[in-house]
Amino acid sequence: LFRFWFVQHLMAGGLSGEMSGRVSYSFTISQLDALAAGAAIPILNLQRHVRKTGRWVAGMACLLLVAGVLNYLALRQQGLTISVTSLGLSGGMVNNLQHVWSYSLVNLLFLFVILHLTTVRYRGIFTAPVFVRIGKIAFGMYVLHMAVLIAFNWLNAKYLHSVALSFAMGFGATFLLADLSYRHFERRFLAMKDSWIGEPRHV
Asked: Which of 126, 137, 122 has the alpha carbon at shortest distance from 190?
């Protein structure tokens, strides 16, 4: 609902639909349902209450695919084209109120993916130390990446003149800053959660 109101407010102020969608997509408050989806797993103890998680993943994936196909066909009828690889859900678009429902469906899908991987004792590639570390600092990377990328886009235009080098340096800087944030700031607050949520159940 916030995304719907926010885009309507921006468009009423004279911003184009395309730009309003991009601003909404980049605005952290617009993505609170993504953060809430991840937080719901320990807070609501979903690992204990949700059964047959694989079926939930399959069901949400099918729902997202059907919604994407229908949205893709609707956009084609409106004379608009988006890449097939987007699965019919192009980030930042406001046509068909996509900015309202598509992000929430994606968030729900990955809620069940995470829930499934943590309940079936997953031991695949994502248990590798580098991926575990990225998982721990993912929130910091999300919060910081936009500012870092803007800075490195400026550096690329002025000095580097290499998209690949700019991206590599930007990713490294984002990783480093997020790691520092996790070590010296976020970890203190994460330690506090166990006092009122309870100790996490190891799987």
From this structure: 137
> What is the rounded distance in angstroms from the CA atom of residue 187 to the CA atom of residue 165?
31
**Sequence-separated (6 or more) residues with CB below 8 Å from residue 41:** 47, 111, 114, 115, 118
CA–CA separation, 140 and 35 (whole Å) = 12
**Residue among 77, 88, 74, 93 at smallest CA distance from 25:** 93
Q: How far apart, in whole angstroms, are the C-alpha atoms of residue 66 and residue 87?
A: 9
Residue-level pLDDT at 89: 81
Instruction: For residue range 61-76, list pLDDT tens digits in order.
Output: 999 999 999 998 998 8
Quick one: which of 188, 37, 33 has its CA closest to 99?
33
pTM of the model: 0.70
DSSP state of 97: G
Tokens of 167: 């991206």
Kindly report the CA angle at 136 between 132 and 142, in degrees rounded to 5?
Answer: 120
In this structure, are residues 96 and 79 in contact, taking their beta carbons and an 8 Å threshold? no
Q: Could you identify the residue written with the tokens 């690992």?
A: 47
